[in-house]
Input
Amino acid sequence: MAVAVSRSPLIEVQQVTKSFPLPGGGRMQVLDGISLRVDEGEFVAILGPSGSGKSTFLRIITGLVPASSGQVLYRGRPVAGVNPGVAMVFQSFALYPWLTVLQNVELGLEARGVPAEQRRRRALSAIDMVGLDGFEHAFPKELSGGMKQRVGLARALVVEPDVLVMDEPFSGLDVLTAENLRSDLLELWIDRRIPTRAMVLVTHSIEEAVYMADRAVVLSRDPARVVAEVPIPLPHWRDRDAPEFKALVDQV
Ligand code: ADP
Ligand code: MG
Output
């Protein structure tokens, strides 16, 4: 569901390609001229077969990996290096096992140069927001998969990114845990309890895309191109005012 009215582009990906060197020489083309625009208020899902380059694409948007050609703009400006407007949630959580929940979440702020006295306050607030109040001093190994992903989410949200990009964040979780996390995340987004202005979700689940997103972008494989952009019409049952949504809530 689009939660903001203005329609200015936050992210513009322009004709991005990516190739990797092959062990025997030559290069493997993974992304072949991908363009994507993400506007304020949008929730975009990216669907594509396994190995098509979805993770690589998100890493390029985030600035963790450079594109081979093409560019990424943030608020109209070309991004070199880490994208200042984007934070990422990883499929495998990517937590540091030797750090506590609090330290893992604070790390994102440290990397962005936030002064120490602000870090703790903001980290505690992010931990509370994702429902992990009381687990600040736990270590990742003491947490369930769903809780670990909540830490991953807190670590991304703590920097108050304009755009949250998520790489199959629910795929390592069991069905009920994934469902809880999906609906909690949607609630934070729809109720505007997070300052995030756009969401990008990579998923292999059409149901998840329809449940969460306003628009689905479908990628092909070998190499990846955008083969379809499908609007997901409102009101669908995620819209809390839609009769479908109310009827479902009545069932639960
Ligand atoms: P997806 O997330 O859609 O499953 P990935 O982006 O992980 O796809 O990978 C796309 C292709 O790029 C795969 O064939 C993968 O092996 C290759 N690839 C990804 N990262 C690297 C890398 N750092 N070096 C070489 N090949 C890579
Ligand atoms: Mg992937």
Observations:
- The pocket of magnesium ion (ligand 2) is lined by residues 54-55, 167 (CB under 6 Å).
- The longest strand covers residues 9-21.
